[in-house]
Amino acid sequence: MYAIVRAGGRQEKVTTGDVLTVDKLGDEVGATVTFPAVLVVDGDNVVTSPAELAKYEITAEVLGAVKGPKINIMHYRNKTGYKRRMGHRQPYTRVKVLEIKAGK
């Protein structure tokens, strides 16, 4: 069984036990979060209708915060002596999928 979930601005394919990196969540380490399902595949059964997807619950545990790769930004204007160098590292959160449960 696997599911496609909406996490941040992206959609991720998850199964039980997967560890994935999502946009930063404001939760503490060890907290439990739930993600909304976009699609659930259980063997030959594919669930896509919003009414049926509302019954599924994908729970995950927060493992900790991580940072993405460093992005270097250089601003330069010709003939003026203007140069500025900046950098950026996007904050992410690592989560481990605990279960995909059909409830309610």
From TrEMBL:
One Gene Ontology term of the molecular function aspect: structural constituent of ribosome
GO terms classed as biological process: translation
InterPro entries reported for this sequence: bL21-like (IPR028909), bL21-like_sf (IPR036164), Ribosomal_bL21 (IPR001787)
GO terms under cellular component: cytoplasm; ribonucleoprotein complex; ribosome
The keyword Zinc is assigned to this record: no
Keyword Protease among UniProt keywords: no
Keywords on record: Ribonucleoprotein, Ribosomal protein, RNA-binding, rRNA-binding
Family to which this protein belongs: Belongs to the bacterial ribosomal protein bL21 family.
Function: This protein binds to 23S rRNA in the presence of protein L20.
Assembly with partners or alone: Part of the 50S ribosomal subunit. Contacts protein L20.
NCBIfam families for this protein: L21
Protein name per the record: Large ribosomal subunit protein bL21
Origin species: Thermomonospora echinospora
